[in-house]
Design brief:
The chain is largely without helices or strands and 69 residues long. The protein has a domain of 36 residues. The protein contains no helices and two strands. The chain has a two-stranded antiparallel sheet. It is elongated, with a radius of gyration of 27 Å. It starts with 8 loop residues before the first strand and ends in a 52-residue tail after the last strand.
């Protein structure tokens, strides 16, 4: 017996779709399904935007050692 925690999608037709590990053999299996009463809420955050900041050398003749930085 194995316990598998996964996220499943329920369609408007009442079908349950989910991905299970590939090492489960094909065929009929006895399963127990527990449905949480609250719907899973996915928060989509927009990607962070960083403005470009030009950083150039003050002078080509300047060199810095690691310990000076």
């Amino acid at each position: 017996m194995r316990a598998i925690a996964a996220t499943a999608t329920v369609t408007s037709e009442g079908k349950l779709m989910m991905q299970i590990p590939q090492d489960i053999p094909q065929g009929e299996h006895q399963v127990i399904l527990v449905i949480d009463d609250q719907k899973l809420i996915k928060e989509n955050h927009p990607p962070l935007k960083f403005s470009a900041y030009p950083v150039g050398l003050v002078s080509e003749s300047f060199t810095f050692r690691r310990e000076y930085l």
